[in-house]
Every structure is written in C-alpha cells, then in structure tokens.
Amino acid sequence: MSYQVQEVNGCTKKIVFNFESLDLTTEIKNALVKKQKEVSLKGFRKGKAPLSVVEKMYRPQVENDALNSFIQNQMYEAVSKEDLRVVGYPAFENMNYEPGKSVSFDAVVEIFPEVELKDMKGLSFTKDKVEFEDSDLDDARKNYLNSKAEMKEFEDESAALDKGHFAVMNFEGERANGEKPENMKGEEFLLEIGSGQFIPGFEDQMIGMKKGEKKTLEVTFPEDYQAADLQGELVKFHVELLEIKEKNYPEFTDELAKEFGFDSVEDFNEKNKKNILEQRDRAAKQKLNQEILEKLVEENSFDIPNALVAQQEEHLREDVKRTLSQQGFNESMMEEYFQKWAGDLTEKAQFQVRSGLILDSVAKQNNVEATQEDFEAKLEEVGRTSGLELEQIKSFYTNDERMKNNLMFAIREEKTFEKIYDLVSVKEA
Question: Is the dihedral angle over the CA atoms 397, 402, 408, 410 positive or is it negative?
C-alpha cells in the first residue's frame, strides 16, 4: 500500500501518498492522445498531427496532465478502498515530484462524521396546546368575504380608533436631526390598525384617536430594518386622522359558501375548523422540533465539515438575497447587510448542519425512510390544506425530480421527529 491515512479530527482525514518508483507511461500516452485530438498544428488537419510531433511540442504540459491524472486516480482509489464519505473537494499538500522517478503528496479530505448521540431518555419537552375559538371561524369568513365587503366611514363623529378599524390619515416623519424625508410622508393613506403594516408601535399609538385629531408618535426603527441608516433610530411621526372606516361584510349564507367551493355554511365551518387546527398543530410541532434540535445540538458535540457549512451558508445567503431584493435592497445595501450579519449567517449554517447530521443519525439508527405511500399521503394533505386540485399537485411534484426529492426529504425528517417523540418525554401545555 502506497498511502497512510491519518486522522486530523472527527471529520477530516489526511491521506499521505508516497510512490518511490513512478511509471507514468500509460498516463502520458492517454494525455498525448487527448491532446492530439484537441490541437491544430501547422501543416496538419485538426487531430491528425503525429503523436511524436504533439509530444515534442507539448511534453511538459502532457507530463503535468499525466501526473495530475495519476494523483486523482490514486486519491479516489484510496477513498473508495477506505470507504470514506467525502464532502467537497480534496486539498493537495506537500507535493514532491521527481520526473520519471518518484512522487509524494498529501490529500486532505473532509468526510461526514460518525455521529454517536447521547441517550435521549430523560430529556423533557412541552408542546404548545392547540386550541380553537369561534372567533377563528369569524376571521376565516371575513377572509373569504373580503372581496364582497363594503368600506364605510363611521357615522359617529366621537368614535375612537381601535384595532380592526381603518384609518385615513396624513403623516410626516421627522428624524432626530430634524430632516423630514419625502419617503416618510403620506396623504390620505389608508391603514388597517393592527395589521402590522407600519413600524412596530406606530399603530398601537394611534388607538384611541378620533376623527380630526392630530398626534405626534415616537417609534424606534428595528435593528434589522432594510435601510441601514435608520436601524435603531428614534423617529417622530406627525399624524392627522382624517376619517375612521370599517368594513361591512355581507351575511355568510349557503349560497355564498357554494360560491367559495363549499357545500354549505356547515361544510365551510367543518373544513375550516379542521384546517385551522391542523395548521396550528403543525406550528406547535415546528416550535417543539426547534426546541428539540437546540437541545440535541447542545447535548452532542462533534466536528462538522467546513465544506458543508460553506454550502449551507451559501444557500442561506441566496435565500436572504431574494428576500432583501423583494424589499427593494440594491447590491450595495445587500453587501452592507451581509457584512453586518455575516457571523449570524455562519452560526445559523453551523446549527443547521449539526442538526441535519443529528436527524440523519437518528433516522439511520431507527431505519426511518420515506416511502411512496408516505409521498402519496403527503400530496393529499397538501391538497386538503392548500385548496388546490390533487392532480395539479401530483403533476407538480412528479414532473420535477428535484421538488419530489425535497418533499421526500421533508417527509423523512417529519417521520424522524415522530421517532424522537417516542425517545424523549413530550408533554402538552
């Protein structure tokens, strides 16, 4: 054996190669034939120059190509023989080559670590209670009836603005330095109170105002606000309330229910209650799962490949860029954002890699896999909760292999959490 495997850490190996005698005849011949097909030499048609002429002109390059081919082949043979699950590309070090005589080099490779988890018995978690109220159905009906609702001004001049009302207002922002930017002004602007459309604190301070009233509101812009120069700044908004309006919704009848694709009001109520409970149960599980992952990452320490972290960080970066772009960020603003929050992205990527490896370890230890049966059941669930036709959903996932693989991965992860629930103690609040 012409190599030795040394352990750098739990996810990094160094393969030390040493070939005291070296014969690159085969590799050189293969490289010459390849080069012969590629080059166009004076006096010869492309690919028709004699090998001897090609070798004379390209010997150093051909020998270098042959050496690289030899090194790559030896490295991959060693990786295969040692059954190493390599992540990313190898780094070659300490190259020592004596033409026609010998070669030695090191290949540093990152591998998927062997994750041995501590016993989960004794870990305890609490899942949020899933509840339903009649007002939830009221909100569901309003969502469907929005297009048929009529906006009306309050007839009572003494009415006070409250959540759910719509304010028609003029406003003007004033920065700490006295500047009043044009993009902080609005006239006859319609704002639903409680919608969270404006800076946190803005809408709450308007509650109780009456028609014709003027008021100065003080709000602090969030630390992660899209405009970096406003992050954390206290700004005054001078507001004049012109009108208070509310939406009047028609009565929700069987006829209207049928317009929205339901058999009756009763059918609407039953299906929406079921969907609301399922959505809240998923949200409660997502919160529970995050708490479980945070605890398992805290309890289990192991080395993780830098290559996986870099890949995950790049995925996160692309997701953030798409979000920022939708919010109006330009390239300069994005770069400033990433410079400020680079550490957070790296930390998040590291957590996701660790938690992913932990879930994969649990799945393998418990033979958890996503089956075609699981896939079909998930499609039906997606159809039921989204309101889309089942055939449309099937077509989307079956015609896009990448999307199907992503869904199968999510199903396996979901089943893995179900297994973890059996291994730990989960109580409901």
Answer: negative
**200/191 Cα distance (integer angstroms):** 14
Per-residue pLDDT at 39: 86
* 89 three-state secondary structure: strand
- Name the packing angle between helices 265-299 and 134-145 (round to 10°): 110
**How many other β-carbons are positioned within 10 Å of the β-carbon of residue 145?**
17
Q: Which residues, in sequence order, are CB contacts of 247 under 8 Å at separation 6+?
A: 142, 146, 149, 150, 151, 152, 166
* Tally of domains in the chain: 3
Domain CATH number, residue 169: 3.10.50.40
Partnered with residue 5 across adjacent β-strands are: 15
Helix axes 390-398, 401-423, angle to 10 degrees: 100
Please check whether residue 383 is in contact with residue 278, taking contact to mean a CB–CB distance below 8 angstroms.
no
Decide the pairing of beta strands 12-19 and 234-248: unpaired
Residues 6 or more apart in contact with residue 176 via CB below 8 angstroms: 233, 234, 235
Q: Report yes or no on 203 lying in a domain.
A: yes
d(CA 353, CA 414): 17
pTM, rounded to two decimals = 0.76
Q: What is the pLDDT of residues 286-318, one digit of tens each?
A: 999 999 999 999 999 999 999 999 999 999 999
Summarised one tens digit per residue, pLDDT across range 3-39 is: 999 999 999 999 999 999 988 888 888 888 888 888 8
Angle between helices 306-326 and 331-365 (to 10 degrees): 130
> How many C-beta atoms surround the C-beta of residue 163 within 10 A?
11
Boundary residue ending a domain (59, 92, 111): 111
State the pLDDT confidence band at 52, using cuts at 50, 70 and 90. Answer: confident
Domain range for 198: 150-248
Strands 102-111 and 124-127: unpaired
Rg value, the chain, Cα: 32
Return the half-sphere exposure (C-beta side, CA atoms, 13 A cut-off) of residue 420: 28
